Amino acid sequence: MIYSKLINKIINGDSLKELKKIPNESLDLIFADPPYNLQLKKELNRPDSSKVNAVNDKWDKFESFKSYDEFTLSWLNECKRILKNNGTIWVIGSYHNIFRVGSKIQDLGFWILNDVIWNKNNPMPNFRGTRFTNAHETIIWAAKSEKSKYTFNYQSVKCLNDDLQMRSTWNLPICNGNERLKNNGKKVHSTQKPESLLHRIILASSNKNDLVLDPFLGSGTTAVVSKKLGRNYIGIEKEKKYFEAAKKRIQNTKIIKDEFLDTLENNKSKPRIPFGSLVEMGVIKPGTEIYDQKKKINAKIMVDGSIKHQEFEGSIHKIAAKIIGSESCNGWTYWHYESGNILKPIDELRQRLRSSN
Question: Residue ranges of the domains in the chain?
Answer without folding.
Answer: 9-40+56-268, 271-356
